[in-house]
Amino acid sequence: MKRPLRLLCQLLFVAFFLFAGTSESQEPAPLKVYIRDSLYHSLKKALPATLSPKEGNISQKRSIEWIPLSSLELYSRLKREEDRPVADIVIGVESEYIAEMKGTSFPPEIRENLYFPFQWKNETFLPLYYGYLAVFYNTQKISIPSQSLWELVSVKTDETLIFPDPRVSNI
């Protein structure tokens, strides 16, 4: 849970840096964040309501307006807003919509100074959730384990591979 929250904070800091063009005398507009409703409800208690100057590269405190939307609502709204996006940040676009979203004015290109513990080549979208896959072997049957997932699944064998869903498995 810490990795997605840390990435969310990094995205908010980048957005504040990009959209912090208000003068000191006027109240800055809230940062609008479209977020998948399921993600919003699971992270609701941890999501910040504001960011202060010490947290981001901004001159004054700025509120965050979280706008939870279903997957289809999120996609439809971004398509409808096309060249005039209302959101400053969009979080939770599902992978099946990524190709279609590249045709809209959203999102802008990602800065290169964001850190990932893995290689990421997409210049438009960032993964929010990512993880590692653990594979357990029966050492009585397999003496030399595979070095990669590709090696594991490409070997011809009569054995059955079972990959438990890490979101619900208690293995």
Automatic annotation (TrEMBL):
Record's keyword annotation contains Signal: yes
Gene3D superfamilies in UniProt: Periplasmic binding protein-like II (3.40.190.10)
Domain of life where this protein originates: Bacteria
Entry keyword Signal: yes
Signal peptide region: 1-20
Keywords, ordered alphabetically: Signal
Name listed for the protein in its UniProt record: Thiamine-binding periplasmic protein
